[in-house]
Design brief:
Elements: E1 3-6, H1 12-21, H2 23-27, H3 35-39, H4 41-54, E2 58-63, E3 69-79, E4 82-89, H5 98-112, E5 118-124, H6 128-136, E6 140-147, E7 150-158
Parallel strand pairs: 4-5
Antiparallel strand pairs: 1-2, 2-3, 3-4, 5-7, 6-7
């Protein structure tokens, strides 16, 4: 079972290493962050922490049983009881159910700790694993969109209804 921790200043080095190590893996199914993301990472990390302190976002790292950073999961644009969910799992941790468990925990936190009533998410059409994670966690497709220049599906989950067991 993975553990979610709110993003802290001391996560910066591990998070940057995670993003660098998995850049090519992520770029297969989501738009690449670009070189500037990595060059400006300290400032970006500080900006995320400032957004979190304002209460508009909740950023989490996902840790495995050995406390190694294996992913991130974020709730952004908290407003009116809703937020957008996004997540990334390391290539080395893929296929073991960790994303499903992390999204389930994020849904629980969204409802109980953050007082949210609904979450939205999106995934590219060429990412069936992410589609399975969302569907497993009670998200339903609400339409088609573009993520960058890639065709994608938009999802929604009402947190007032119980999720899967």
């Amino acid at each position: 079972m993975p553990t979610l921790e709110l993003l802290r200043p001391d996560h910066a080095d591990a998070l940057l290493a995670f993003e660098r190590a998995n850049r090519a893996w992520f770029a297969r199914t989501v738009p690449d962050r670009g070189d500037a993301y990595f060059a400006e990472f300290p400032a970006r990390h500080a900006a995320l922490l400032a957004e979190q302190a304002e209460g508009t976002c909740r950023f989490h790292v996902i840790l495995d049983a050995d406390d190694a950073l294996i992913g991130r999961i974020n709730l952004v644009d908290l407003s009116g009881g809703t937020a957008d969910l996004g997540y990334r799992i390391a290539e080395s941790a893929a296929g073991r159910g960790l994303a499903k468990a992390a999204v389930a925990e994020a849904c629980r936190l969204a409802a109980t700790a953050y007082g949210l009533h609904a979450l939205n998410a999106a995934t590219t059409l060429d990412n069936p694993a992410s589609q399975a994670v969302l569907t497993h966690n009670g998200f339903a497709v609400t339409g088609e969109i573009l993520l960058g220049d890639r065709p994608a599906l938009r999802y929604h989950r009402d947190l007032d209804r119980p999720g899967p067991a």
